[in-house]
Fold:
Amino acid sequence: MTQLGIIDYGAGNLQSVANSLAAAGVQGKLIRSASDLENISHLVLPGVGAFGDCSKALQEQGLVDELRNWIAADKPFLGICIGYQILFESSEESPNATGLGIFKGQVRRFEERGLKIPHMGWNNVTQLHSSDPIWQDIPNESHLYYVHSYYPVPTDPSIIAARTNYGDDFAAAIRVGKLVATQFHPEKSQKLGIQLLRNFLNIDA
Structure:
């Protein structure tokens, strides 16, 4: 049985994420400390705000090692926006902050070059492995919703599950085992976003 946890580090887009997950079929429990993880099968780290603020809050809540252990054990995990970026080592947004370091790579800012920053609105998502169950019932090149100025650059390109172009191609999503992380916001992406959340919830814990 799916027992969903949504990490509350004080700045996440929690209500919108919780509502979308409920629409996908599961009510979530807010996670604010390691003890809250008991009996949880699926974990979501949503995010708005700054990389450094997220890093500091997770450390203060005693969740850094818990998240590393959770992911190392290949339990279902979904990171959204900052919850995706924090999986990497560092970010140009917060040079003195340390990410979880689950994956090698840095989070970089879009270059201006006439682009409007932040990248905000609908953009197409090119799936690199359309047969992956995480994309079930989501057509390739679907438009999903973004709000961000920074994006991860994974050192290992094999973990990239989807790409989007905004001036340059960037890693729109990664997929490793039962971990999924997206730069776009499923909770803002209407029916297709809810479908992606449903697909995540169907990952066997």
User: Anything to note?
Assistant: The longest helix spans residues 190-201. Helices lie at 14-24, 51-60, 64-72, 82-85, 190-201.
